[in-house]
UniProtKB/TrEMBL annotation, chains A, B:
<keyword id="KW-0808">Transferase</keyword>
<dbReference type="GO" id="GO:0003677">
    <property type="term" value="F:DNA binding"/>
</dbReference>
<feature type="domain" description="DNA polymerase III beta sliding clamp central">
    <location>
        <begin position="130"/>
        <end position="246"/>
    </location>
</feature>
<comment type="function">
    <text>Confers DNA tethering and processivity to DNA polymerases and other proteins. Acts as a clamp, forming a ring around DNA (a reaction catalyzed by the clamp-loading complex) which diffuses in an ATP-independent manner freely and bidirectionally along dsDNA. Initially characterized for its ability to contact the catalytic subunit of DNA polymerase III (Pol III), a complex, multichain enzyme responsible for most of the replicative synthesis in bacteria; Pol III exhibits 3'-5' exonuclease proofreading activity.</text>
</comment>
<dbReference type="GO" id="GO:0003887">
    <property type="term" value="F:DNA-directed DNA polymerase activity"/>
</dbReference>
<dbReference type="GO" id="GO:0009360">
    <property type="term" value="C:DNA polymerase III complex"/>
</dbReference>
<keyword id="KW-0239">DNA-directed DNA polymerase</keyword>
<dbReference type="InterPro" id="IPR046938">
    <property type="entry name" value="DNA_clamp_sf"/>
</dbReference>
<keyword id="KW-0963">Cytoplasm</keyword>
<dbReference type="InterPro" id="IPR022635">
    <property type="entry name" value="DNA_polIII_beta_C"/>
</dbReference>
<keyword id="KW-0235">DNA replication</keyword>
<dbReference type="Pfam" id="PF00712">
    <property type="entry name" value="DNA_pol3_beta"/>
</dbReference>
<feature type="domain" description="DNA polymerase III beta sliding clamp N-terminal">
    <location>
        <begin position="1"/>
        <end position="120"/>
    </location>
</feature>
<feature type="domain" description="DNA polymerase III beta sliding clamp C-terminal">
    <location>
        <begin position="248"/>
        <end position="368"/>
    </location>
</feature>
<dbReference type="Pfam" id="PF02768">
    <property type="entry name" value="DNA_pol3_beta_3"/>
</dbReference>
<dbReference type="InterPro" id="IPR022637">
    <property type="entry name" value="DNA_polIII_beta_cen"/>
</dbReference>
<comment type="similarity">
    <text>Belongs to the beta sliding clamp family.</text>
</comment>
Amino acid sequence: MEFTSNKNNMVYGVQVAQRAVSPKNPLPILSGILMKLKNNNLCLTATDLELGIECTVPVNGSSEGSVVLPAKYLSEIVRKLPDVLIEFSVEKENNVATLKYAQSKTTIHGYPADEFPLLPSLDGETTYVIKQELFKNMIKQVTFATAADENRPIFTGVLFEVEGDELRLVATDTHRLALRIGAIGSHGYSGEKTSALIPAKALNEIVRIMPPENEEVKIIFSNNQVVMELDNIRLISRLIEGQFPNYKQVIPQGCKSKIRLNTREFLDAVERASLLAKDGSNVIRLAVQNHTLIINSNSPDIGTIHEELPIVLEGEETQIAFNSKYLIDVLRVIDAEEVFLELTGSLSPGIVKPVEGDNYLYLILPVRTV
Amino acid sequence: MEFTSNKNNMVYGVQVAQRAVSPKNPLPILSGILMKLKNNNLCLTATDLELGIECTVPVNGSSEGSVVLPAKYLSEIVRKLPDVLIEFSVEKENNVATLKYAQSKTTIHGYPADEFPLLPSLDGETTYVIKQELFKNMIKQVTFATAADENRPIFTGVLFEVEGDELRLVATDTHRLALRIGAIGSHGYSGEKTSALIPAKALNEIVRIMPPENEEVKIIFSNNQVVMELDNIRLISRLIEGQFPNYKQVIPQGCKSKIRLNTREFLDAVERASLLAKDGSNVIRLAVQNHTLIINSNSPDIGTIHEELPIVLEGEETQIAFNSKYLIDVLRVIDAEEVFLELTGSLSPGIVKPVEGDNYLYLILPVRTV
């Protein structure tokens, strides 16, 4: 294996692939990146067996081949290289890679490429296609509502549901639920409804490595895996097994109090109130009056906060208590100048949604206070 | 106590003073910031009894007084305030502070001001005056060479030595030594030589809080304390007791090999070599040949690096091994396009200094290798 490359392409490819390397993987070869040269394309692959990332970068190939190099050292070294032409070669017998740059050189001991697990190449029947900017936005507006606790795997995933040309992403940790609807296209669509549970981690990763110049994301499902394809990147993830709760059932139809208010002012006030809600498990109290939303929190021995915000109220005056974190999370990503807060008494879930448009809904359970 | 203030002045004052609050201080009142209003000046003070910081900001005072408020909550809250006029008042009877902003307000429970320790007001006989930019630069070029280990307190300090109009800062951790010389002025100079050991921590703090628009730093010593004054800030630190080693004795006069090379190229090469020197306690090997410096490092099982740099050599060819960290530290701060590396065989200390000027010297002990 032999090629030359500029520094930036090497750094980029290694950094993208490296995101799939788990630092605590017990299999030594999985701490490595598989480098595979074919013509003038260098394909870099890493996987922790749950998630795999493949990134292809252009180089000047002169002899094909492959090797697995330790991700940590490879990445530290290429980042520190001078910005000159890098000559890369691997001795087939012992898998030692040599990088020559200017008058200097480094050698890195690798592993045989054939010991590296193969990433499956999926040929699903249905390929979905979605605009990258939209997909990114949809992912950001739901993944935060998943649970971190791996003991209930279903809640660490995002439901990916397609019906016709509508994609719905749904996430819940049982305390709150986020639902985002967007337009999706498909090739070879079978007419059946697709419903799959993608790990939030895989979705957050694809957002992180989306190149700004890439326009569309292709999404292909097989039995228990999903592939997301960008121009030069493929991300493969296992799907989560199990039955996602029936989210439609829990979304209330209508409300008794519909409050319209400025998103940014709401967020700032809740953030301040949360500073003194620490000792009471983040509980803040909302009281809805005719033209005013009052937010109160207090930490005994430390202090209190009393916030007043102008609102437009349709319906009844009411009051309710929330975990401030769950409100802050949604107000940070909702991407609308004004929101509706819909309430039905202090025991029913609240709904947050943008005033304009109908493509986002966030449900949040109240905290019962004495 | 009552005043109004804009948000930015409050945030600034609290953040500067807060740097002297130690999060693990066992005395509750020391987790607080003393706020003292006199006329239109709000003075904020914090201390961990080793280091104290006082910052004065302009406000619109209407009733004088003082209180101690918990630094953590005060700082979180003022940072989150809206950018409006803040009305600040304290109830004398119970030390509860109220901040009103727009329609909202917060209360914070405080401590009585008279329980807060007094920072000494030093009236030393000699006041030194030094340009802020120069002092900052001098501090950055020596403090990194101090030891972190509090068991040998002398080596956690920087020697501050004045003779005539020359200030020398010296730091060592016994493996390397940094010496920086600069010009200093004085008022009421007694003619005696000043020699004091200032904790590196206090010097690093004063650099961090230097306002860009401040031009001079006043430095006043008493028996066991030092005060550094900026326009609106006073930093007070205890001095370290004990005898600093005789640094002049360890600096070699002359050398057998004088190597001139580009600072940036040297730094980059040493940084790369250090990546594969990890398993051998950071040891890199330098070989000086006629026109070339060769740097080698290797980690068994991982790989090797071989770097070649162009140099101008005066004197003998030689070789030596160093801890790469000690070289990287100095090359990052030396602030000169080219440096001299002066060597006298592989067992004597090496010297790094700028090619231009005579105000900086860094000594580094070699590593003995088999």
